[in-house]
Specification:
Helix content: over 70%
Shape: rod-shaped
Protein name: NADH dehydrogenase subunit 1
Number of strands: 0
Organism: Calumma furcifer (Fork-nosed chameleon)
Keywords: Mitochondrion
Distance between the termini: 39 Å
Length: 24
């Protein structure tokens, strides 16, 4: 039931560092 939420959070936390590195 909470799997989609957990997966979304995991994806968010794994992609955030790359987004921060893309910033000038």
């Amino acid at each position: 039931q909470f799997l989609p939420l957990t997966l979304a959070l995991c994806l968010l936390y794994t992609t955030t560092p790359f987004a921060l590195m893309a910033l000038p």
